[in-house]
Amino acid sequence: MLKAIAQKELIRVTGGKAPRPPTTWFPPAQGCFKMNSDGSKGIEDGMAKYGGLIRDVVGSWVIGFAKAIGVCSVVEAELWGCLHRCSLFLESPFL
Question: Where on the tree of life does the source sit, at the highest rank (predicted)?
Answer without folding.
Answer: Eukaryota
